[in-house]
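ok new one. same drill as before - structure tokens go in, u give me an amino acid for every spot. 737 of them this time. try not to just spam alanines like last time pls lmao
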């Protein structure tokens, strides 16, 4: 690197004295350096040539994929085809939609599915075969068929143009041992005179192998020498390849060929000439030296950039862990001489993973960048804001006057995180949890201070997220206590009476009538007394006890509610329970055991559970909805909730999180957010329940906003069954409307 720095001397005179003249004297060395430079250029040129040929192959495959779909439209947008399919005219189908497609367009396999996705025609290699042979490719086409029918049913015309007459679905797959393009098109009327129910059209499936005529075309028409198909990416010397990747991201094979390398060809011709003429072109040496000087200046610039990247986060440009450690060590070293106090704030975004899962990683990155900008605006130049990785951030707050100053910053951090983020074209809500430790109060060792802030963060999350906790010495004992509590919870689930179910009433906002109750787990410990649900429910989830706990609560609640004069029994269900393949069967069994109408049961889940891609969760929800069980979104407005997603959620009710209700009157815009949620829910036909109603003013304001149901300590705290019966019979005092 010192040698290269000579090429970046600030003046030409120094460059000539220190670099140019010595190199000219060592002409042989310069010749070797020049040769090396040319070799590098050769490699770069050949790399560009290979890259362009790979782009050409990609274009060919893309054109072929769209070409297959275009070929299909010549016979699928046709009244006669619709008529022939409905009349089961097999001969007509074979001539026009089968063998002709093979003969004229070279399609290798052709299938036709009826509206029930049953095969009614099949042709392989131009010959008619049993429709049942479609089973051999069913696994490759099932997802495409389902997606296409769903799009047809909702009238999707997004990809329809003057050239593309109908929507379709296509992908690459391995068919009959061949890499192939699979294309599906609906058979529709070209005049529009034949009535067809959207989503119930016949589907035409065409398969075009990629290892036959395409290979010949690559060799002859596109001059790709030695073109061939390979299942594995094993290349001979000098070969290049292009992967065939299906829409799921899986590689099914590779096109391999011997690329033309113009750089190597030119170098082989110029090499001898350069050796012979180098001694006569001393001026060329000077040109090369000047060129190296320019390159070195760029290299120095790049080095500075690399240094920056090594000490800063690439996504947010915040200091990374390495720079944070350096700054914290420096700040701790200065504490004895300055007498100041500093705080370490450990931040973790709540439910950030759901944002990535629902909207994609680019949306998650956009949220992280926006959150980083908000952190910068909340801190001073003396402070350090760093990103440790993922959704974890850390702040060094310098010159802290006292806990009240850190408390103020924590509250501002939580508030700024709760404001909606604009990502992926929608408003997304997340939260942040904060753990804080102080130096020198909690120590002056860098790693120990960060660890204590992390421990405080753990307690903040355990307390319900979107909060902050300052480290205390007794927190180190929590981990050991947690292990003890886990063992005691296991025993409690086996001992009748320790895990109890209390019920918090749900009142109609307009008539103040008790419309239902929410069943809540309560733990009566023999020695500890009542154990907070915020402590033992997350513990049950982390230790795998949530299925057993949830089943106990659901059974007890159903057995109690079957005799109560209420419309709705709401029970919380975690994503872990819903991911159990037998969950729907367990719920059905409990309902039968209690002889309870499924339509009275309402299961409360998080929005992320409803937003996941097809999983056991979705299958269980679908099965339970089919028997009448209702679903509600719990704590709406926290996590990654977004108003735009209300239109797509298949639920009967949303429960507005208590944090919004508690924020009424604080000039944080909570009233406007709740109003927007209620208005959007009303438009989509979803009922709303507000949680955490604790004052009469909150109650009156929610009624004014049009909220359907109210729940909170103002109306009733969670009570055992006996007290609930008293409330229902009117023996207990009820809060007036």
């Amino acid at each position: 690197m010192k040698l290269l720095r000579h090429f970046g001397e600030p003046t030409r005179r120094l460059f000539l004295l220190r670099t140019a003249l010595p190199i000219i004297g060592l002409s042989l060395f310069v010749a070797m350096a020049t040769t090396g430079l040319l070799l590098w250029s050769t490699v770069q040129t050949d790399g560009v040539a290979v890259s362009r040929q790979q782009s050409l192959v990609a274009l060919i495959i893309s054109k072929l994929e769209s070409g297959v779909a275009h070929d299909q439209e010549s016979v699928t947008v046709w009244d006669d085809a619709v008529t022939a399919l409905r009349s089961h005219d097999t001969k007509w189908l074979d001539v026009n939609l089968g063998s002709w497609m093979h003969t004229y367009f070279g399609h290798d396999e052709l299938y036709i599915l009826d509206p029930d996705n049953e095969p009614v025609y099949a042709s392989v290699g131009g010959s008619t075969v049993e429709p049942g042979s479609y089973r051999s490719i069913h696994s490759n086409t099932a997802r495409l068929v389902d997606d296409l029918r769903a799009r047809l049913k909702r009238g999707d015309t997004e990809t329809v143009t003057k050239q593309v007459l109908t929507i379709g679905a296509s992908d690459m797959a391995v068919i009959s041992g061949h890499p192939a393009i699979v294309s599906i098109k609906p058979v529709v009327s070209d005049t529009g005179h034949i009535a067809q129910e959207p989503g119930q059209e016949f589907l035409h499936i065409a398969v075009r192998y990629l290892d036959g005529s395409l290979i010949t075309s690559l060799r002859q028409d596109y001059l790709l020498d030695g073109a061939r198909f390979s299942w594995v990416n094993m290349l001979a010397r000098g070969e290049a390849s292009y992967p065939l990747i299906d829409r799921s991201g899986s590689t099914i094979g590779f096109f391999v060929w011997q690329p033309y390398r113009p750089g190597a060809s030119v170098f082989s011709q110029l090499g001898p000439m350069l050796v012979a003429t180098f001694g006569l072109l001393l001026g060329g040496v000077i040109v090369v030296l000047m060129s190296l000087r320019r390159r070195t200046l760029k290299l120095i610039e790049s080095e500075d950039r690399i240094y920056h990247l090594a000490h800063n986060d690439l996504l947010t440009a915040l200091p990374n862990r390495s720079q944070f450690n350096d700054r914290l060590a420096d700040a701790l070293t200065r504490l004895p001489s300055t007498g100041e106090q500093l705080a370490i704030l450990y931040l973790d975004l709540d439910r950030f993973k759901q944002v990535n899962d629902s909207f994609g990683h680019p949306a998650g990155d956009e949220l992280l960048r926006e959150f980083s900008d908000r952190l910068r605006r909340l801190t001073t130049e003396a402070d350090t804001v760093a990103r440790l990785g993922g959704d974890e951030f850390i702040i060094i707050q310098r010159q802290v006057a006292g806990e009240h100053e850190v408390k103020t910053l924590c509250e501002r951090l939580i508030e700024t995180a709760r404001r909606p983020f604009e990502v992926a074209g929608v408003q997304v809500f997340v939260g942040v949890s904060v753990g804080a430790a102080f130096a020198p109060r909690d120590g002056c060792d860098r790693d120990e201070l960060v660890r204590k802030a992390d421990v405080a963060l753990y307690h903040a999350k355990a307390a319900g997220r979107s909060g902050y906790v300052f480290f205390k010495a007794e927190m180190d004992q929590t981990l050991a206590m947690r292990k003890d509590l886990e063992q005691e919870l296991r025993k409690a689930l086996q001992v009748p009476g320790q895990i109890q179910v209390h019920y918090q009433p749900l009142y109609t906002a307009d008539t103040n009538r008790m419309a239902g109750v929410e069943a809540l787990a309560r733990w009566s410990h023999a020695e500890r007394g009542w154990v907070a649900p915020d402590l033992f429910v997350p513990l049950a989830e982390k230790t795998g006890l949530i299925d057993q706990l949830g089943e106990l609560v659901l059974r007890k609640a159903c057995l109690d509610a079957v005799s109560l004069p209420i419309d709705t029994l709401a029970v919380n269900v975690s994503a872990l329970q819903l991911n159990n393949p037998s969950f729907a069967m367990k719920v059905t069994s409990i309902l039968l055991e209690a002889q309870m109408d499924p339509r009275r049961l309402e299961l409360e889940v998080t929005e992320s559970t409803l937003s996941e891609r097809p999983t056991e969760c979705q299958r269980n929800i679908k099965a339970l909805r089919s028997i009448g069980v209702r679903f509600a979104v719990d704590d709406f407005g926290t996590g990654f909730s977004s108003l735009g997603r209300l239109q797509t959620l298949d639920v009967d009710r949303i429960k507005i999180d208590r944090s919004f209700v508690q924020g009424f009157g604080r000039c944080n815009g909570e009233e406007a957010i709740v109003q927007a949620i209620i208005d959007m829910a009303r438009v989509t036909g979803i009922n709303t329940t507000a949680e955490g109603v604790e004052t009469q003013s909150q109650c009156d304001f929610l009624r004014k906003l049009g909220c359907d149901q109210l729940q909170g300590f103002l109306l009733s705290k969670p009570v055992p069954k006996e007290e609930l019966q008293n409330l229902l019979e009117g023996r207990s005092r009820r809060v007036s409307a």
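Residues 27-76 form the longest helix (50 residues). and btw The radius of gyration is 35 Å.
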